[in-house]
Amino acid sequence: MKATRAEEIINSPDVIGVLYRSNDVWLEKVDKGTSKAEVTYMEKGNTITVDIDQLVETGPLKLE
């Protein structure tokens, strides 16, 4: 994923799925200067900093 797309996802009114190493994550913050993003694991709840290019968009999610 590119930093610009990660920012678009954060600012989107829709919920867009993102994976990091096959785990669902929530994008918290993007740093274009370092190409890093803060993400929170959906299941575990812990927040880590990762390389943006390791994130994979899975598309819009429907909330039930």
Automatic annotation (TrEMBL):
GO biological process: asexual sporulation; sporulation resulting in formation of a cellular spore
UniProt keyword Calcium present: no
Statement: the UniProt record of this protein carries the keyword Endoplasmic reticulum: no
InterPro entries xref list: SASP_SspH
Entry keyword set: Sporulation
Main localization category: other
Pfam family, one: SspH
Subcellular location: Spore core
A single Gene Ontology CC term: endospore-forming forespore
Family that this chain belongs to: Belongs to the SspH family.
Protein name per Swiss-Prot or TrEMBL: Small acid-soluble spore protein H family protein
Lineage start: Bacteria, Bacillati, Bacillota, Negativicutes, Selenomonadales
